[in-house]
Amino acid sequence: MSNLLLKRVPLVAALLLLLLGFGAVRANAQSSIVISQDSAWGGTESPYLYVYLSSPAGPGGVNVSLSTNDPVAINLPAFVHIDAGNLSNYVYFTTNTVNTFHNVTITAGGTVSDDILIKPNRPSSMTISQPSAWGGTEDPYIYVYLDAPAPPGGYDVQLSSTNPAAAACPSTVHIDAGNTSNYFYLDTSNVISFITVTFTATINGGSQQVQLQVKPNRVSDINISQPTSWGGTESPYSYVFLDAPAPPGGFDINLSSNDPAAATVPATVHIDAGNTSNFFYITTYTVSVPHTVTLTATLNGAQKQISFIVRPNRPNNINISQPTAWGGSEDPYIYVYLDAPAPPGGYDLVLH
Q1: 192 Cβ contact list (under 8 Å, min separation 6)
Q2: Statement to judge: residues 76 and 102 lie in one domain
Q3: How confident is the model over 164-202, as pLDDT tens digits?
Q4: What integer pLDDT is reported at residue 344 of this predicted model?
Q5: Looking at the structure, do residues 223 and 270 belong to the same domain, yes or no?
Q6: Interstrand relation of 187-188 and 167-168 (parallel, antiparallel or unpaired)
Q7: Structural domain span for residue 265
Q8: Burial (CB count within 10 angstroms: exposed 0-12, middle 13-18, buried 19+), residue 343
């Protein structure tokens, strides 16, 4: 009888070990998985996940397999190892740049899962250094901001202008890894009318816009050194002023006179780059009656005018050296005075 019992002991022990082994497997079943955050910016953030067991891991620990329904959006380790005697462990996973929102499910051990939203890192806003600029003279700059820091390697944000002839921009602006913004300069050109230009920054399926009004640089004022001039004798000068400094190459302002018989002006006056004004001389001519002359300065579709009077230079006095003279014996003389000095070539006055 005792021999029979002794023969059955190993079998009983084996059965007990087998039962204990099955119990350990069941006890080590995954009870939950928890991801560190509900959402992450693709390509920028690397969340972590915790896997929890229902009982401590057995000798040698346990490898819990990991899987995902979206390997395009995340890079997931094949498993997480939980050391012997522990109930849990964590592991980091990386996200990838995406163009759309991805709802990702991560499963541990094929039984428990958790979800995370992988978001595209897009432009969050654009700001411009000034809302308007003088075309060809001012070159504003624009800042582009991202929702989150750029990933390793950075981002090339695509740029466009609705009217590059009025205000051009680079094709891209690079935002370095870890940064959320960068700026670029615009290149404005001379325009003849007010133009609103829209700039767009695009990346990962998202975009932002900002606008700039490009203004024509026009003549803001014209003045004259004197309101009246003696025709043929005096040559006044006139100053032309711009709204803003002239661009590289300067401006040629078109000039005209409505009465070239009384006063003429050059065809143009040049204002050098960076300057806001210049002057020109007016040539007047002898007239028999007063002439009101209007001068016009024109640039970029707009003009300014000023008027002055060209007066006739006439005798204003005559006197004689003596009020009486003995006939045949004395020859008095007479002085004739003009309103202003005679012009080049002088005057022949008619006496009678």
Answers
A1: 216, 300, 301
A2: yes
A3: 999 999 999 999 999 999 999 999 999 999 999 999 999
A4: 87
A5: yes
A6: antiparallel
A7: 219-311
A8: middle
In a 13 Å sphere around the CA of 158, the CA atoms on its Cβ side amount to 7
Read off the CATH number of the domain in which 275 is found. Answer: 2.60.40.10
What domain count does the chain have? 3
Name the β-bridge partners of 68: 106
The verdict on 259 and 302 lying in the same domain is yes
Q: What contacts 269, CB < 8 A, 6 or more positions away?
A: 240, 252, 253, 255, 278, 279, 280, 297
Tell me if 339 is assigned to some domain. Answer: no
174 Cβ contact list (under 8 Å, min separation 6): 154, 155, 156, 157, 182
Is 79 a member of any domain? yes
Say how far apart CA 73 and CA 276 lie, in whole Å: 57
Is residue 143 domain-shared with residue 187, that is, in the same domain?
A: yes
- Give me the residue label for tokens 């897009």: 122
Mean pLDDT estimate for the chain: 91
Residue 99: which CATH number? 2.60.40.2030
What confidence category does residue 343 fall into, taking pLDDT thresholds of 50, 70 and 90?
A: confident
